């Protein structure tokens, strides 16, 4: 009987793959994913503002909460590329 013993270090393989693909992942996320989320939130914000204006004209009350939440999400997604990779890099240490 022939036996083949192979030792593989899975952790180093995963780490090597991650460091190789990290730059490409960052580029795609920064140039495609975040701008797509920004556009969706901006359109949603303008639609919500228009709907709030129509509700104000109809009922005389203005609901600020949904507008503020969408605006906060838009600010978060606009500024996320500035700090999200430092958070990911911090998580890699553990």
Number of helices: 2
Portion of residues in beta strands equals: under 5%
Number of strands: 0
Percent range of helical residues = over 70%
Evaluate the radius of gyration: 23 Å
Distance between the termini: 43 Å
Question: How many strands, what sense, and barrel or not for the largest sheet?
Answer: none
Specify the structural class: mainly alpha
Mean pLDDT: 87
**Poorly predicted sequence stretches spanning 5 or more consecutive residues:** none
**Helix-strand pattern, N to C?**
HH
**Shape assignment:** rod-shaped
What topology emerges from the helices and strands here?
Layout: H1 10-59, H2 65-92
Helix pairs in contact: 1-2
Description:
By secondary structure, the chain is mainly alpha-helical. The protein is built from two helices and no strands. The protein has helices at residues 10-59, 65-92. Helix 1 (10-59) runs antiparallel to helix 2.
What keyword list fits this structure?
94 residues; mainly alpha; 2 helices; 83% helix
Outline of the structure:
The chain is mainly α and 94 residues long.
């Amino acid at each position: 009987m022939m036996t083949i013993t192979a030792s593989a270090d899975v952790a180093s393989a995963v780490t090597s793959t991650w460091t190789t693909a990290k730059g490409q992942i960052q580029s795609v996320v920064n140039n495609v994913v975040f701008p797509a989320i920004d556009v969706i939130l901006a359109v949603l914000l303008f639609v919500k503002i228009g709907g709030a204006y129509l509700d104000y004209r109809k009922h005389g009350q203005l609901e600020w909460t949904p507008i503020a939440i969408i605006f906060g999400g838009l600010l978060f997604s606009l500024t996320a590329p500035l700090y999200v990779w430092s958070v990911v890099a911090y998580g890699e240490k553990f």
